[in-house]
Design a protein that fits this description.
The protein is of the alpha/beta class. It contains twelve helices and eight strands. β5, α8 and β6 form a beta-alpha-beta unit.
């Protein structure tokens, strides 16, 4: 059995009736849904977000996987079954709306949510709470480029909601390539090449914009993990000069590099908290 085959089997096992799910703290109202990617790469930012939202009435958290990774591993039926399980959990706890942290989960929910449950991006949620004076969010001020992930390119809903927190020194990258995360297991070499192209493209854009130290802002955890892994492999080169920052980390005031070496452990820890 090849390494990619073993990885696929282990990933499929984990994501089927998600091994690290935790609905103990979910309740009626707004349910924040970090998915499986965000807890993997940003445990400190997730903890800070929980602390920030803990005093807000009617906001709770549910840890689970939307099932999207299963579409390419076991097929559409397995993905739909997992998504239906999550949907049933949301209805059971009395969720009025689900607040995903990643556009991948957002795209999955957009297709299948029960009519009683609406969806709002985390950035729209944070804006509303900020304007109501219920929480404090930093703004994204360090110059850099925002990378738009594949699920948000058609409509730009997430980017529109995020724009509220961006200062004029932050611009939207023109790079339209995929980060490569979607085919990391099946085509690792092509996946790395795709990520490298994104990093190099953003580095050049930052140089043209007069940004001395290139910063790549992401709002998809899968992109963050893929691009950070590639960046480390390109140490010393143009791609390796780019700093990968998740927008939520910036908003929460957390200086957190995507954690790429302990992702399974991070998911496991998040599930028991």
């Amino acid at each position: 059995m090849g390494l990619s085959s073993l990885s696929s089997k282990l990933t499929a096992f984990e994501k089927t009736n998600y091994l690290f799910k935790n609905w103990r703290h979910a309740s009626a109202g707004s349910v924040v849904f970090p998915g499986c990617g965000f807890p993997s790469f940003f445990p400190k930012t997730l903890a800070a977000l929980k602390d920030a939202l803990r005093p807000v009435s009617g906001v709770s958290f549910a840890l689970d996987c939307c099932g999207l990774p299963l579409e390419g591993l076991k097929g559409p039926e397995a993905y739909r079954a997992e998504l239906s399980r999550v949907e049933e959990c949301l209805v059971r706890v009395g969720a009025r709306e689900v607040v995903p942290l990643c556009p991948n989960c957002g795209s999955a929910f957009a297709e299948a949510l029960d009519r009683s449950v609406s969806q709002v991006t985390i950035y729209a949620c944070l804006r509303e709470l900020t304007e109501r004076g219920l929480i404090d969010c930093a703004r994204v001020v360090t110059p850099g480029a925002v990378f738009v992930p594949c699920p948000d390119r058609a409509h730009g809903e997430w980017l529109d909601d995020l724009a509220y927190f961006l200062e004029s020194s932050v611009f939207v990258s023109e790079c339209s390539a995929c980060c490569g995360a979607a085919f990391e297991i099946s085509q690792p070499e092509a996946s790395f090449a795709a990520a490298k192209r994104v990093l190099e493209s953003v580095a050049r854009e930052c140089t043209r914009a007069g940004v001395e130290e290139p910063v790549l802002y992401v709002y998809c955890a899968s992109c963050a993990g893929k691009l950070e892994r590639a960046r480390r492999q390109c140490s010393g080169g143009l791609a390796g000069s780019v700093r990968v920052v998740h927008v939520l980390s910036a908003l929460m005031g957390v200086d957190e590099v995507p954690t790429v070496s302990t992702t399974v452990l991070n998911r496991a820890k998040a599930a028991i908290r």
